[in-house]
Amino acid sequence: MGKNVSIAQIKAHLFAEQRPSVDWVNALRADERKGVQQLLVRYDRILEREAQLIQQFRDMRAFEKTFSFSGAQIAGVDEVGRGPLAGPVTAVAVILPERFELPGLTDSKKLTSEQRARFYEEITAAADVGIGTATSDEIDEINIYQASRRAMVRAVEALANRPDHLAVDAMELPLDIPQTPLIKGDAKSASIAAASVVAKVTRDTYMKTLHESYPAYRFNENAGYGTKAHLEALDREGPSPEHRRSFQPVITREA
Asked: Is-above-0.85 flag for pTM?
């Protein structure tokens, strides 16, 4: 790599969206300029981090395969929305393709909104995805735990293919399918992590739509959780039809 190539040009090529060839990078290692060597240290760290994320994802998929027979279709199942004061609880079941890889996939709460959006697109484009919800009225009728189970069952039933085994985040479902409940499953199972991402994005998108009908509560910002602005709106407006009247902060603010 000749010194007639500026460090700025090398940086642009090294960190371009399209990864440079291994031969080009190896040739670059002979460049003794301090700035070039610093760029290579940064580049190698990125490669190391990417390798770690790939291995983490593969370990999560290998862990799932211990639940059932070789080649079994395993559906990861998760839900979001137990804690909010308004809106549905949303569950998702996901069967990932055998050769699918998504380095960096983990519990949706640990991801940025940009990462969740990108992963959502990749998961829904490639996987068998089922979505189920339970409304605020159902939550009030049967309680949030039972409503979460109901939403999860609906998500499994919405899959295009019947799974051979379920990996469920911290819950057992009333379904005649072998299943493994996992505490903090979205950090252990790739399929559950995928379900958590799709569930989070799906519910957040719905709550933003709901904001158009009930703008006073700022559902587009709080997704139904009891923020200060949300509680102040409840004091002014009283509950909307989407509020969970069995939840204490809403009960005390009934109009």
From this structure: yes
